[in-house]
Specification:
With about 240 residues, this protein is of the alpha/beta class. It is built from 10 helices and 10 strands. The chain has a domain of about 110 residues: P-loop containing nucleotide triphosphate hydrolases (Rossmann fold). It is about 35% helix and about 30% strand. Strands 6-7-8-3-9-10 form a 6-stranded mixed beta sheet, sandwiched between helices.
């Protein structure tokens, strides 16, 4: 499987405070990967580094074979990386339909691109709320909208930061069902979440980070056989 995203020995800091130390991982084309660790260990900073929002001081990041660690974030997004950020960040004064159509693009040149109808088929509840403003939605509906918005760009890589954080159990299951569907369709995904057992079922490979360093990498079978890792590094 060819590498879609390669993160090689990156070091990232906020001013004098270094957050990431020699971080390495990769995602293959069509693969689902997770980034695990407790809060404050550098997961969101890793996403920000990939997207060019927090500069990388050392190391390299390659996407589809091209170095992106020195590119502007808008250019990286146009290359086909879409992020569902922690906190969702939808437009509260735009309707569900407008939130989705504002991001419509076909960045992976798909013959069957994501459209409004496809997003509504994936999340029927959004179609019911089609004319509602983003600020009128529940937290779960906002998360569905944020995922749908990212899919409307037809990305090569979909990144979800805290995919099910703060959601009710039924809504969490809806998000996991969506991600299972996307995986079956060959969508490459990087996901940050704390529900390790669900990630073991969903993802192909996992990277655990502690204080900005990789402390473990492996497949779902290995992670399932080492529950002590969950207690040591993830706290579940």
């Amino acid at each position: 499987m060819s590498a879609l995203l390669e993160v090689e020995h990156i070091q990232t800091a906020y001013g004098p405070s270094q957050v990431l130390f020699d971080l390495n991982f990769e995602i293959g084309d069509g693969e689902v990967a997770s980034l695990l660790g407790r809060n404050g260990m550098g997961k969101t900073t890793t996403v920000r580094s990939v997207m060019g929002l927090t500069p990388v001081h050392q190391g390299r990041i390659r996407f589809r074979g091209e170095r992106i660690d020195a590119l502007a974030s808008n250019r990286i997004a146009r290359m086909g990386i879409a992020v569902v950020p922690e906190g969702r960040r939808i437009f509260p004064n735009l309707s569900v339909r407008e939130n989705l159509l504002a991001f419509a693009a076909n960045r992976n040149a798909s013959g069957e691109p994501w459209t409004l109808d496809r997003v509504y088929h994936l999340f029927p509840g959004l179609q019911v709320r089609d004319r509602n403003m983003g600020g009128q939605l529940s937290g779960g509906e906002q998360q569905m909208l944020a995922i749908g918005r990212a899919l409307m760009t037809n990305p090569h890589l979909l990144i979800l930061d805290e995919a099910t954080e703060g959601l009710a159990p039924l809504i969490r299951e809806e998000i996991w069902r969506c991600l299972d569907t996307l995986r079956s369709q060959g969508q490459s995904i990087l996901i940050i979440d704390k529900y390790v057992q669900r990630l073991i079922r969903l993802a192909d490979r996992h990277t655990i980070i502690e204080r900005g360093r990789v402390v473990w990498q492996g497949g779902s079978g290995e992670l399932n056989r080492e529950p002590e890792l969950w207690q040591r590094y993830i706290g579940v």
